[in-house]
Structure formats: C-alpha cells, structure tokens
Amino acid sequence: MAEKYMENARVISQEQIADGIYSIWLEAEQIAGSAAPGQFVSVYSRDKSRMLPRPISICEADRDQGRIRLVYRVAGAGTAEFSRCDAGDVLELLGPLGNGFPLERCPAGKKAMLIGGGIGIPPLVQLAAGLEGDVLTVVGYRDEQFLTEELSRRGSFFFATESGRAGTKGNVLDCIRENGLKADVIYACGPAPMLRALKAYAAENKIECWVSMEERMACGIGACLACVCRSKEIDGHSQVHNKRICKDGPVFRAEEIEI
Ligand SMILES: Cc1cc2nc3c(=O)[nH]c(=O)nc-3n(C[C@H](O)[C@H](O)[C@H](O)COP(=O)(O)OP(=O)(O)OC[C@H]3O[C@@H](n4cnc5c(N)ncnc54)[C@H](O)[C@@H]3O)c2cc1C
Ligand code: FES
C-alpha cells in the first residue's frame, strides 16, 4: 500500500475565491511528492475538542515546490476554523489517502469527460493534469463559479449553474445534453444525487464511469467503518457487501457500488 505521511504543514497563502469557498496552499513536501489525482488529506483541527479530522481532496500537488492546494467550502466548525488560517500558521495533515482515479483508463487516443458538482469540483484540476488522453470538463455550480481558469487549462470546459446566472441553466446532465458532449470514459466527483444520475446516464449510453464519493467520514484510514457504502463484491475486511469509502475508495467503478 502507498505510503501516507503525517505532516505539520505551514500555510503559504489562503484566499476566498467565491462565497464561502476558500483556496489554501500548504507546504507539505512528502504529501505533494506522492499524491495521485483523486486522493485526499485528513486535516486536523487545532481545537482538540474536535477530534476527527476533516477529509479534503487534493486540488493540486506541486511536487517541485513541495506544496499542495486544497479548495473547500465552509460547511461547519472545522472548515470555518481552517478558513481563518493565515500564512505562517500550521495545520496537521495526514495523507495522501484513498485510491485516486484510475488514470490508465484514459490513455492517449481516448477521451475523458471530467464531471464535478460543488465541492466535488476541486480534484478535477489535478486529474485533468494527470491524464494522457483528451479531456473535456463539465461542472455544475449552485450559482457563483470558481476554478474556471484552472479547469480550462486542458481541453474544452462547459458548466451549468442551478440559478441560471451563467452557462447552462440546470445541472451537469442538462449541460452534457445541451452541448451534445461525448467521451469514452467518465470521471465524476460530487454530491450523491449527481453521481446517481451519472451512473444511470453512463449505463444507458454504455460509457465506462468512475465516481469519487465525498461522503461523511470519521477515522479516514479504514478502521471505524463509519464511511461504508454497499458494493457488489464482498469486502475482504468486514466480509459483507461493503466498501470503505476512505480506504477502498473514494473512487469506485460506478456499477460496483450502490449510490
Ligand atoms: C474524500 C472526501 C473529499 C472531500 N473533499 C472536499 C473538498 O475538496 N472540498 C470541500 O469543501 N469539501 C470536501 N469534502 C467534504 C468535507 O470533508 C466536509 O465538508 C467537512 O468535513 C465538513 O467539516 P466541518 O467541521 O466544517 O462541518 P461539520 O460540522 O462536520 O458539518 C457541517 C455540515 O456539513 C455536512 N457535511 C459534513 N461532511 C460532509 C460531507 N462529506 N458531504 C456532505 N456534507 C457533509 C454535515 O452533515 C453538516 O450539515 C470531502 C469529503 C470527503 C469524504
Ligand atoms: S472513515 Fe473510518 S473506515 Fe472510513
């Protein structure tokens, strides 16, 4: 199994990039050196009354500079605390965790559709950079857009907004249909209803589909079973039809799991 590291990561910079959405760069040499697209880090609170770390996907990993970027929405007390960090502060991180996206499913000559919704959008930046094949990115925002420049770096970029303020009015599937988008393989990350709809769309259209599940977690390292989802196969750890999202995932072939 790939190595994971506990690092005291110094905050290089942090900025708010949309309403309630923050982008933070952290010095984390070991994690940056081994992170694969779709993996995440557990971020520990400095308030020891919040024991459980918060899982956040790696948005970008810069191996040469030994730093990683996280982009997150303030959802509750943990992420609110992270949003108050300034340059020079230190956050404890464990990572890289999880399996990451199977890059080999989109070699040169194939086309991938990267699909993200809300806080599932950030890991697509590192994924797009890591794929050899052609890339087409489709994302769905509630209203305000973020990471548009980064997501436009490779291939074509399409988006939907629920509010209809810009792009296609509606969700990512509305955007795919409106623009007649096609690909050989789908990689998706976002809320469960979006992943469920994409699983059905991929099955109907016979497209290989990989989904990253950003469900609630506790330990983050496979020990507590707080994050299980139902699977087709029997899990070697618990001997039931379960997969631990933190350890066996967060990326699964869509048809292997119940969403
Ligand atoms: C593998 C993985 C990767 C993730 N990557 C990112 C990321 O890149 N950017 C980002 O913004 N968030 C990401 N998340 C979600 C993030 O972990 C949670 O938003 C965070 O833990 C909330 O912590 P909190 O203390 O701020 O809020 P809490 O007080 O713990 O929760 C506040 C509210 O958010 C809800 N909530 C908590 N966790 C989740 C979750 N996982 N999914 C949906 N709702 C949740 C709670 O039910 C509650 O209503 C990821 C989650 C996982 C499992
Ligand atoms: S969060 Fe504990 S097993 Fe996944």
Summarize the biggest pleated sheet. 7 strands, antiparallel
Which ligands does the model contain, each kind named once?
flavin-adenine dinucleotide, FE2/S2 (inorganic) cluster
Strand content is 35-45%
Calculate the mean pLDDT score and round it: 94
How many β-strand stretches?
16
CATH architectural type of the largest domain: 3-Layer(aba) Sandwich
Number of domains: 3
CATH class placement of the largest domain: Alpha Beta
Radius of gyration: 18 Å
CATH homologous superfamily caption of the largest domain: Nucleotide-binding domain of ferredoxin-NADP reductase (FNR) module
Q: Kindly, what is the distance between the CA atoms of the first and last residues, rounded to a whole number of angstroms?
A: 26 Å
Helix content: 10-25%
Overall shape: globular
- Secondary-structure-derived class: alpha/beta
Order of helix and strand elements from N to C terminus = EEHEEEEHEEHEHEEHEHEEEE
**Poorly predicted tracts of residues:** none
User: Could you please say which CATH topology of the largest domain applies here?
Assistant: Rossmann fold
Description:
With 259 residues, the chain is of the alpha/beta class. It has three domains: 5-97, Elongation Factor Tu (Ef-tu), domain 3, CATH 2.40.30.10; 103-213, Nucleotide-binding domain of ferredoxin-NADP reductase (FNR) module (Rossmann fold); 215-259, Dihydroorotate dehydrogenase, electron transfer subunit (Dihydroorotate dehydrogenase B (pyrk subunit), domain 3, Ribbon). The chain contains six helices and 16 strands. The strands form three sheets. The protein has a seven-stranded antiparallel beta sheet. Strands 11-10-9-8-12-13-16 form a seven-stranded mixed beta sheet, sandwiched between helices. The protein has a two-stranded antiparallel ribbon with strand order 14-15. The chain is globular. The mean pLDDT is 94. Bound molecules: flavin-adenine dinucleotide and FE2/S2 (inorganic) cluster.
